[in-house]
Give the backbone structure.
Amino acid sequence: MNHINLMLKNYFKTAWRNIRKQKIHILINVFGLAIGLCACITIYLFSRYEFSFDSFHPDGDRIYRIAGKVEESNGQSFYVEDIPPQAPSTLRKEIPGFERIAGFYRYRPKITIEKQNHERVNYDCFVEGANTSGVIIADSNYFSIFQYEWLAGDIATSLNEPFNVVLSENTARKYFGTSDWKDVIGKEVTYDDSLKVRVSGIVKDWNKNTDFPYREFISFSTIRSSFLKEEMDKNDWLPGNDNRWIWSVAKLAPGVSNDHIRSLMHGVIQKNMKLDLDTKFSLQLQPLADIHFNNDYDHDDIRKAHKPTLFGLITIAIFLLIIAVINFINLTVALSIEREKEIGIRKVMGSSNKSIIFQFLVQTFLVVQAAVVIALVISWLVFSVFKGFFPPGVTLDLFNPNTLLFILLVTTFTVLISGLYPANVLSSFVPVISLKSNPTSQKKISKRSFQKGLIVFQFTLSLIFIISSIIIMDQIRFMGYSDFKFRTDAVIIINNWDDQHGKIRVLKQQIEQLSGVEKVILQSKPPTGVTEEEPLKYKGKEEIKMLVSIQEGDENFIPFYAMKLLAGRNLRHSDSLSEFVINETFAKKLGFQAPGEAIGKLLYKENKAFPIVGVVKDFHEGSFHEAIGPLVIGHMPEREKSLAIRLAMHGKSVPSSEPLIRKIENIWSGIYPGVTFNYKFFDDIISQMYEKEQKTSKLILTAMLISIVISSLGLLGLVMFTTQIKRK
């Protein structure tokens, strides 16, 4: 044992002596490895976070979201996250193989709690850091599919009666300021000023990442016993239903296949859902693990991760580490000429090849450990400085066992890959040649084709990163600076979808009076960012029916955004929908050779005819990834609950508009007391459409710069060494 300790001590002393002797080159190696390891650690933490969503549920492989797919006769198809309200109960009765099915509505209410001093305090329903409400109206089966720890109340009875609500632990504590759950049970929560419910249960919050972050669960029977029945109590299978379809999750019984259930669901749809002959609707079983990554379902308010991007990042991390390791190998092999005599003497004194290899691995271990420490410091700086780039849950948690295990594995891998080949080169020196005054090992090393191949491979990877970055940056630049065919500057958007009394029009009138406001219009949404499609018919030589994007706005909509009319006229003032302006793509799809031919023709919406009075030049409603589709513009006052406000900037910067926005907020607070004021610049909405592309381009650009830095460091080290050995 003492012999082993002495030997290890000698190995570490020798390694430290060599490190001190080659300070500059070792620093180059350490810094290069640190950058590569930092990329690996950062990307691992980011990827682990994304892949962790909803991976903690018991029997998660048997849990699915029941969603829908609509297929049109013209080949268009799209997915929907919700299904008819009657579907869950019908599927439960008619299809064996479901262990549990739970339907639920996502509810976006204003929440009011009466405190002990009789003060009424309003709360926001939205989950912090997400664009989704934390309130759902669910049946009790929900708690049989997703497991919660119950702190008070009973899973079997808490949601059986109307006007009951189950709260999460943190929500109950926030509302009532106590952890004594006996005092909380029976307390009152008010939704939308008039829906009063009693707390019937408390469940522990999940501390894992999930796309189901709900924290308030209202009993499903509350719908038919309250004003909610006006909006949600739908007893038919008609499509649309004013967007009041229902979400549903299901848990299959053990041994039941997804394909078998899907085929049975098809029969249920055929029997119950009456659609036009040219439209097909089918139910889909979407695996729980797919929800976080599937962008086909793009209206569910869930932040999606992009699997190809994650796999691309993992590949980049591996390549950067490989480049750093190649640097280490090349420079270490080149430096080995200075240790020829040392190796020769060791062999003459009886050292074996194994002991020489082990001694060099000890030195490599010390270098890699220094690189790991620096990599952790750099990673901490990256997470601190670029907080906005990462999701809020991505942090450098060194106390997490998974993080420690990954660091241990990547350290071991780096030590072995970086150390074995140079150690093998060192141990292969012949003592007789090594002890000559004019060693020839340098020539032997320089002729090694493997080492030359490593250098070529290293710089090939760097060139790939450079070329890829240039291409991607050009694409992003094209998307960011291309003309959308309408005016976007100095426009802020304010929404209040819950406006039930037409107060949005009062808000518009008061904002128009403010100095610094150029124009205000009512709309349902801006021209770019959100697409809402509805079926329209045209009865020409043949009846044509297709899904068409609807833009709701009055006669001010087209002039406000400076859209170009190719034929006909703008909308006229009216109190309801009376006519349409269409885009040129729609005109072509209807079979018209020139835009003017469409003027006067009739479009049918829900069997009611509306004339086409104008054709506007095509503009990009979606991103540049998507082809421009058919579109109509029409005045639908009941849907126009958004304001577009053009500020009179006159060349001023955005910060100069802050005083005016504060005035708008004051008007909002007077009209909608207790409702949070939110606004967005239209240009920011457009930028968000390309957020993923911009992040990807930045990642690729960063990887390119890192690969150039690492490769340049290696080249610098080789040049310095070559210069050193050629000095007279």
In short: The first strand starts at residue 63 and ends at 72. The first helix runs from residue 2 to 21. The CA atoms of residues 45 and 618 lie 43 Å apart. The chain is about 45% helix and 20% strand.
